[in-house]
Amino acid sequence: MLDGYVPICYSLNAGLEGILARAKNEPSDAWLRMPLGSLLWTFMAQHIRCVESFYGGKFNLRVAIPSHSSTRGGLRHLDAVIDTVRDFSAEWASGALHKNEASKAEMRRAQIVPGLFTASPAVKGQRILLFDDTFTTGGTMASAAYALRQAGASSVVGLSFGRQLRADWKDSREFVASLADRKLEIDKCVVHGGRQADPFSFVFHQPG
Ligand SMILES: [Zn+2]
């Protein structure tokens, strides 16, 4: 369902998730949306062409995964992050995806939940860049990609601030060890860096 996935950085042992959770849930920390918006804008300004060429062509639509209307009083957290950068929101197709229910823990496991999102007919035939804040098992992003493909999107590539990794997860232990001395270098993306876009292969359960 996802044709590819690119993390802006890796988040080790909950380093990035803590900042994201504060930006989302603590009104007094809402200012954290500004550096996050700036990070996303900077990464895209420098590297979206690299990602497009790696995955076979220009993206026609950029879609941020929406929050459910019952979550945080209906605030769409990622739109709020994008809105901190002037004129940036015009580059994103808000309304292309609708979230039908609030995520529950079991939905975040590595599986596609077919009814979790509904996509607008406007996505038909489009090459889509799909953005979410974090990527843990990939279940949320895969469910969103599923809805987009069902509505006729021709390709969906995921992007997130961070891919969550933990040293005590068996399948990521070796990779986490290899990251120990690596700094965030915003002028390098996974494509520039000459690394494979993601070192893990994903196994998503297809809906039956
Ligand atoms: Zn690059």
Looking at the structure, the CATH topology is Rossmann fold
What radius of gyration results from the CA coordinates?
16 Å
Report the CATH C-level class: Alpha Beta
Heterogens: zinc ion
Task: Write down the domain tally.
Answer: 1
Strand-pairing-aware structural class = alpha/beta
The ordered string of helix (H) and strand (E) elements is EHHEHEEEHEH
Unreliable stretches, pLDDT < 50, 5 or more residues? 200-208
Question: Mean pLDDT, rounded to whole units?
Answer: 84
Order of the strands making up the biggest sheet: 1-6-5-2
Q: Roughly how much helix do the residues carry, as a percent range?
A: 25-40%
Short summary:
By secondary structure, the protein is of the alpha/beta class. It contains five helices and six strands.
Summarize the structure in words:
With 208 residues, this protein is of the alpha/beta class. It has a single domain, classed as Rossmann fold (3-Layer(aba) Sandwich). The protein has five helices and six strands. The strands form two sheets. A four-stranded parallel β-sheet has the order 1-6-5-2, with helices on both faces. It has a two-stranded antiparallel sheet with strand order 3-4. Strand 5, helix 4 and strand 6 (155-165) form a beta-alpha-beta unit. The radius of gyration is 16 Å and the shape is globular. Residues 200-208 have low confidence and may be disordered. Zinc ion binds at residues 47, 50, 189, 191-192.
